[in-house]
Amino acid sequence: MTRRVGWTLAGAIPLAFLAVFFAWPVATLVGRGFFPDGPFTLDGFAQVFSDARTWRVIRTTLAQAAAGTVAAVLLGIPGAWVLYRTRFPGRWLVRAIVTVPFVLPSVVVGVAFKSLVISTGPLGHLGLDRSFAIIVASLVFFNYAVVVRTVGGLWASLDPRVEQAASVLGASPGRVFWTITIPALAPAIASAAALVFLFCASAYGVVMVLGGASYGTIETEIWFLTTQLLDLTGAAALSIVQLVVVGAALIVSSRLQASQARAQRLRTDESVESPWTARRDLGPTILTATVVVGLLLFPIATLVQRSLTTASGLGLDHYANLASTGGGTLSVPVWEAVGNSLRTASAATVLALVLGLLVSLVVSRSPRNEVGRRALGLLDAAFMLPLGVSAVTVGFGFLITLNRPPLDLRSSLVLVPIAQALVALPLVVRVLLPVLRAIDPRLREAAAVLGASPGKVLRDIDLAFLGRGLGLATGFAFATALGEFGATSFLARPDQPTLPVVVFRLIGRPGLENQGMGFAAAVLLAVGCAVVMGLAERMRPQEAMTW
Length: 547
What we know:
With 547 residues, the protein is mainly α. It has two domains: 1-34 and 313-547, MetI-like (MetI-like fold), CATH 1.10.3720; 51-268, MetI-like (MetI-like fold). The protein has helices spanning 2-34, 43-49, 52-85, 91-103, 106-117, 132-155, 161-168, 173-201, 205-210, 218-228, 232-264, 278-308, 317-320, 334-363, 370-382, 385-388, 391-401, 415-437, 441-449, 454-483, 486-491, 499-507, 512-537, and strands at residues 86-87, 274-275, 309-310, 313-314, 403-404, 407-408. The strands form three sheets. It has a two-stranded parallel sheet. The protein has a two-stranded antiparallel sheet with strand order 3-4. Helix 1 (2-34) packs across helix 14, helix 3 packs parallel to helix 6 (132-155) and helix 3 packs across helix 8 (173-201). The chain is globular and about 65 Å long.
């Protein structure tokens, strides 16, 4: 009975958190769209969708997501080949460079690309500022690693004998690639494309920085209606549309990931890597090198260079100015915002780790009956939902639900860490759960036969194995919370801003001093997230997720 109560509480506590801080705000948001003044009505939808601006926003969102997905897939497949099927000196470094953009805060990426295309930037003469092309390029920057690692992970495990047999029988390299390799990689390519579309459709920070009024998306339009026009009914209606788009992408992604998992089980245990050769690998290598240098490194290098450029030449003046408020642009000095970010990210990390640990322990159990297995499957899926709902929707939902008793948290400092923990929680579960599922159940059975109590089995086996994934989970949670901008832009108090909010405010103000401080603050944020993820990657267990 004690053990049953313990496991029930372990599942009930995270579920209560999810119900209060996710299901309730999202449900209230949906209700606001259908019941704005009490009785059911579609007037809010009619008003929103009768506006030509709304349809332009929806078209822009879908167009940006589709273009970003196609570009990321086309560029990522050659990168997957070079980094996962060939061997060459320094490959580990290139893999690390490819991975870092995925964990960078969205506002940092937006500022990095902004530094390229403003009038004084290296690409300023091309007129790309506030253009469709620069937004798509930033989306590819973010999601290139998703394609490379997802497709490369499956490609590295494909049995090469099928391709070798086709070559022996006279098939040309091109025919082998299109008739054997691509169909074998199809589950991974489709899964990666669905994920990239999901991330592109819910992009917020980069669009806010780069898009302006001409290329607003559903996410930015929700922010505009809420904060500028105070049109909560219209924002709720758009949020429902956004939920439908992102939810559909999440469903497709989940099904495709299941197909990828089945394909992954058909792997070979033999090494399929081969030494790099110019005749076979030169073309993909040139394309991959161009992407790594031109798309991934160039914006970050330009951001660093712009942060060091002052009116009198290169120097650290902008970094020194971080101790100020930017001539009154900010309510607090930037270094105080850094402290706010570190405190809120630390609190969010602790909360996400505790909840993620409980969820992972419960979901990793193996019930003997079908009902129990289905229940745990639903529980696992429930905690993945925040990954498919944008942080903007979550932040907006917080504003309209947690503003009255019994949970009036509008003036509380805990609201931002809670929102950040909600965003980080799915990533923590996705890191810890594979580690627990990889434990041989015979270890638990042997310990029980030898007289170990259930608590001792849990402590000495499950928790001992969890230590292998805890470092990576901590890194993901902290980096995600540190760079979170979508919900925080709604919830952060003016006197308690976080670093991403400060970067956005600085970069949106004219003047060399404000711009330079924004670039310097963005560099600090990028370095912080990269260092955290670099340390976490060194502790990555083999069983943890691949992206």
